[in-house]
Amino acid sequence: MRSDLRYTVRMTDSASPVMDLDLRLVSYFVVVAEHRHFGRAATVLRVAQPSLSRQIRRLEQQLGVRLLDRTPQGTRLTEAGEVFLPRAKALLRSAAQATAQARAAAQPSRITVGYTTGLIVTPAVRELRREHLDADVQTLHVEWNQARDALLDHRVDVLVTRLPFPTDQLHVTILYDEPRVLVVPVDHRLAGRESVTLDDIADEPMPRVRHSDPAWSAFWRIDPRPDGRRAPDGPFIDALEDKFEVIAAGQAVAITAGFHANSLRPDITTVPLEGVEPSHVVLATRAGDRGRLVAAFRKLAEAHLIGPDRG
Fold first, then answer.
1. Mean pLDDT of 64-89
2. Bridge partners of 209?
3. Does the CA dihedral 207-48-86-289 come out positive or negative?
4. Where are the domains of the chain?
5. What secondary structure, in 3-state letters, does 151-182 show?
6. Distance from C-alpha of 56 to C-alpha of 119, rounded to nearest angstrom
């Protein structure tokens, strides 16, 4: 969550006392709720786990309800937490939008360019800075599952990422395609093949990412397969980075974008996957955003971000 949301909101109505709600604590709660684990949430937030626990207790004291329960498996939302979570997200989004719109009015020559793992935006960013010397051009890495939220929350103004993800309220332009490849251990029966097909991996288990978007999961697991069969289930993982560990251990294979081919661990390798739709690298912006820097970056991205095989 953004550090600039660290202020309070005073909430009241005719039947309720005044309450000062600290948005920083609300943002901490949302991260814990999304990860279902205090340790992982603390890592993402870059705070100590005991400190995070204290901050959540402070929020619960402010609200007068318990939001989270610890379990042997991690953390779960209470009934009050389930009710509060969507409203907490809406509150944070409203605050972020208000902040961004105020800043945009005061600083019309500012833009933040987002990108997800494995995608390079440098050529277009450098050209934008060269052509618009008055502009404050910033870049920001965005987690693979935060594309839409990062734009609607105004954390970024433009984003280079991969489909699929929810695109309502967004304007999306395909920049180029990447081939999809199969990732296997180096001692796997398919390692070293010139290429493979879905028939070759019909019985190979594939990792499942918890809480992932169904369309995203279906695309990267190719589930169901063209013949209607479901992709075999492999272990659950909590982050994309975990998939390389389960692959190296021989527990699963996975499908990924071709960019991983030159940046893998020494104990796993990739094989070209034939007969499947490629991954689409896109530029996404908020629908209706007609800012001059957004328009300028879109043109530069289409001209300069053309993929590693064509650059």
1. 90
2. 237
3. negative
4. 3-101, 107-176+280-304, 180-277
5. HHCCCCCEEEEECCCCCCCEEEEEEEEECEEE
6. 35
pLDDT of 184-223, one tens digit each?
999 999 999 999 999 999 999 999 998 889 999 999 999 9
163-174 pLDDT, tens digit per residue, is: 999 999 999 999
Tokens at 76, concatenated: 């779960």
- 30: Cα separation from own chain's centroid: 15
Cis-peptide, bond into residue 50, ω within 30° of zero: no
**Which architecture, in CATH terms, is 180-277?**
3-Layer(aba) Sandwich (3.40)
CA distances for 98 relative to 7, 19, 274, 283, angstroms? 13, 20, 47, 24
Q: How far apart are CA 67 and CA 69, in angstroms?
A: 7
- The three state secondary structure string of 61-109 is HHHCCCCEEEECCEEEECHHHHHHHHHHHHHHHHHHHHHHHHHHHHCCC
Rounded to the nearest 5°, which phi and psi values hold at 186? -65, -20
For CA atoms 298, 303, 304, 309, the dihedral sign is: positive
Beta pairing, strands 254-257 & 74-77: unpaired
Written as one letter, the residue type at 211 is H
Q: What is the DSSP letter of 261?
A: G
CATH number 1.10.10.10 is the correct assignment for the domain at 3-101: yes
**What is 107-176+280-304's CATH topology?**
D-Maltodextrin-Binding Protein; domain 2 (3.40.190)
Distance CA 71, CA 75 (A): 6
Task: Please give the model's pTM, rounded to 2 decimal places.
Answer: 0.69
> Comparing 107-176+280-304 with 180-277, is the CATH topology the same?
yes
Give the separation between CA 269 and CA 263, rounded to whole angstroms. Answer: 10
- CA distance readout (Å), 275 to 103, 197, 257: 47, 7, 14
* Cα 291 to Cα 179: distance, rounded to the nearest angstrom: 33
Characterize 171-193 residue by residue with b for buried, 16 or more Cβ atoms within 10 angstroms of its Cβ, and e for exposed: bbeebbebbbbbbbbeebebeee
